[in-house]
Amino acid sequence: MEESEKKQEENTYKHFWLIVSISILLVLGLWIWNWLALNEYPEDTRGTHGDMFGAVNAIFSGLAFAGIIISLYLQRIDLKNQFKEIKQTNREFKIQNDTLHIQKFENQYYKMIDLHRANVNEISIPFFDLLGDSPTSKINVKIEVKSPNLILREVTGKKGFVDMAKELEYCLEISLDFFTKRNDFKYNEKDIFSFAYSIFFWGVYSDFAGSEKIIDEHQELVKNHLKQEQSNYKRNLYQGNSQEINTRYVPFQGHESRLAHYYRHLFQTVKYVTIQVESKNIDYSEARQYLRVLRAQLSNSEQLMLYYNYICGFGQNWDRLGKENYQFFTKYRMIHNIPVDRVVFVEKPRVHFRKYIIEEIKGKDSLFEWGDYES
Length: 375
What we know:
Layout: H1 2-13, H2 16-39, H3 43-51, H4 54-122, E1 124-130, E2 144-145, E3 150-156, H5 159-180, H6 189-202, H7 216-239, H8 256-278, H9 284-295, H10 300-311, H11 349-352, H12 354-361
Antiparallel strand pairs: 1-3, 2-3
Helix pairs in contact: 4-8, 5-6, 5-7, 5-10, 8-9
């Protein structure tokens, strides 16, 4: 590359010194010829004859002025070409810079997806199971035997979200039953949902499980009922009886240690993609494509739990309930595959997002895989 540029520069200036030399010799030749010609005339007539060459001087002066104009014009062309080259260089630099930004974003994004998978795989909920032909004995690992009839196992990964959804729905059902079917209790559903989710999230014995909007003694009524259900679960487990709550583990012990980091990291991953749209590193359609990859990692039960987390107030910033004006569920379709008919007790997703469906979607690019309108 350097050799070709050097040759091109040599070709550009190879006639320069020849032209300069010829010009100097021409000027000197004319001057000598003028001097010799005037020497042949008497001194008193040399001035008259010398005036005859004034035209020659005028021609050379005019040619010099024309040369200046031509030089300025050539210089203007040269500057224009340089400006084009600079623009082209800047354009190429921008393309390279944009490519580096995309590469950096993708490297970070796919690392975050790997971390999400790791977070899911690390979810583990221990439980006791009866020895025998239990279906769980084929999918869980034996840890230690506690009695001749019981063995300690664990629900791991995505399977944990199936049971957690059942546990949360039971908390919602009991709370609604206590607070809405009695005339002396006047609480709105939003506060009831938040209270029920706090029990599910922190555990029935945690001091964090509660609500400032609900009287303490009313909270204790629900908590005591759930504590009794927990005791019955343990007793029935050891006696081999069927459980009213259909979870493989003892319920109401809390899931903060499992879900807090999971939800934080998932939220930051989605936010990281949407920030790229705001920074104009990618456009909206590209962001949707990237987030489809992330959403493909979420099981239906995970999306169901993500909606419960949002509608109960703990994860309200995922969409319009929050103060940040994010639209991760609507504009970016992060619960597109949610099994809408499995949502119980709380407001259905189609109802909750009805205004967005009517005003923004208008029958195109449906918000939910199973359809946007109630059948």
